[in-house]
Amino acid sequence: MIRLAGKVGRAALTAIVMVPGVLASAAVPAPVAAQQDAAGTDAVGTPAEMQAVIEGVQTPNRQGLDVLTLEEVMERFGVPGISVAVIHDFDVHWAKGYGVADVETGAPVDVETLFQAASISKPVTATAAMVAVQEGRFSLDDDINTILTSWQLPGNGFTDDRSVTPRLLFSHTAGLGDGHGFPGYNPGVPRPTAIQILNGDEPSNVEAVTMVRPPLTAMHYSGGGTTIMQLALTDVFGEPFPDLMRRTVLEPAGMTTSTFEQPLPPDRDANAARAHGRGQPMGDAKWHVYSAMAAAGLWTNARDLARFAIEVQKAARGDPDRVITAASAADMLSPVGIGDFAVGFSIAREGQGWYFSHSGGNWGFICYLVAHKAKGYGVAVMTNAAGGGQVVNEVAERVRRAYGWDALDKPTLR
Fold first, then answer.
1. Considering only CA atoms, which of 302, 299, 281 is closest in space to residue 290?
2. Which of 11, 9, 6 is closest to 295 using CA atoms?
3. Contact between residue 2 and residue 391 where contact means Cβ atoms under 8 Å apart
4. Are strands 115-116 and 276-277 parallel, antiparallel or unpaired?
5. pTM for the full model?
6. Residue 403 and residue 25 in contact, taking contact as beta carbons nearer than 8 Å
7. How far apart are CA 378 and CA 400, in angstroms?
């Protein structure tokens, strides 16, 4: 099963919700899995063929969820809608929406429907920080208190020998003890500033972000650390966070429908998913609002997330004129030495391959992005339900098998 970093574990199994007519229900032929062609390169089926493999009953049938179509998997776990995009050969091979964005209106999910990316906001924010590094505004290893101008992080006696730096904040090794996880806010209630969140002052609904151990002692997941970087980036660039993210990352990476605006403006909300739990709306609000935009505030879809991952993949292989340089990509794909996080991404070996990934879980949304460090493939899956983790796992596993990822490969005998 895929390891879902962050707060995904709170997603419980949910009641069945019927999503009629969105997928073929018949079994499909044996998978059109990736094969070696005459030139020795991976060859896969057409987008339509690969979609049919992933959407249908799985062959060979290993029981479990293999006996279900994707539509039936969604029904079992009460997931009204999903957005899926598959990366192959450093390009979006296909992207598609399934089900409904809102069970109250019945509006269908299309390829541009916006979902909350939750904690996948963090590596996107880290990319903006790498742009700042490339422009000479600060380095990844500068003391964060020399970058911040509107607030200072109290060391609490833990930073005498080593400073807290952007590299440590993005890799969750800075020594912070918050563990956030942000519940968000109903759109109709007052919302805190970033400084109020960091200080734990009203109307913030989380405790203060504080040091509890020396930096680089251990990895402890910290949404508060990314919120510190949100404040640092606004201090350095001198512009609102949604604006700087659009200018430095979203537009250059081709994430044309994505935004960090909180709350979502009405024109964008017209094609945005509702938060669901147990196949029903989570509450009176369509979605929650997140003042911790860097940690949880990105609105996007699977196609745009795939474009983001491809941008990192192409930078890592040295392609020119990318949002970040090859050196910046190396920082984002190389663990700092404690834990499994680099600057923004979780890094893991699966089978014979190395992958960068991040998951996300907001109020009524679960999502996941994973991509190969070198081979130019990956998948993004977004759901509008608190029980979406099981569907995310199943879609990603079906993509792995259909496309023949090296995550499935065993060691080669010597």
1. 299
2. 6
3. no
4. unpaired
5. 0.90
6. no
7. 8
